[in-house]
Amino acid sequence: YHILFFAGFAPETAPNPEQAKIFVDTWNQKGWTWDGIAEGSRGYDAILTLVEAIQLGGGGSREQIRAGLEKVDIMGLTAHIKFDATHDAQPNIILVEIKDGKSQIVSCD
């Protein structure tokens, strides 16, 4: 068993399935190794979140980004990115069983 925040083999399980499919298709077109897609999705969400925070905060200063982060409310590849009172976002959690070399989703939050 394995826990993932992004299942590249099943983009329909992402909070933003349309964007997840584009991400997976682009990943494959670039010929990047499959073992990096989960971390790549987290990096994608980080940049998406930062861009949104800069736009919402009105600029790129530390104070503006901090203010913008409090307003972020977007659907990423790994989570509905909206920070709670303790400044955490709640990721999508996927339980996968790997059996006979094949991955199968057991549970998806």
How are the strands of the largest sheet arranged?
A: 1-5-6
Distance between the termini: 15 Å
Count of individual beta strands: 6
Question: Largest beta sheet, briefly?
Answer: 3 strands, antiparallel
SS element count, helices: 3
Helix-strand pattern: EHHHEEEEE
The global form is elongated
Please state the structural category. Answer: alpha+beta
Average pLDDT rating: 92
Beta-strand content estimate: 15-25%
User: What is the CA-atom radius of gyration, in angstroms?
Assistant: 15 Å
Description:
It contains three helices and six strands; from the N terminus they run E-H-H-H-E-E-E-E-E. The two termini are 15 Å apart. A hairpin with a 2-residue loop joins strand 5 (94-99) and strand 6. It is an alpha+beta fold. The mean pLDDT is 92. Helix 2 (37-57) packs across helix 3.
Properties at a glance:
109 residues; three-stranded antiparallel β-sheet; 21% strand; 3 helices; alpha+beta
Quick summary:
By secondary structure, this protein is an alpha+beta fold.
What are the SSEs and their pairings?
Layout: E1 2-4, H1 17-30, H2 37-57, H3 62-69, E2 74-75, E3 79-81, E4 90-91, E5 94-99, E6 102-108
Helix pairs in contact: 2-3
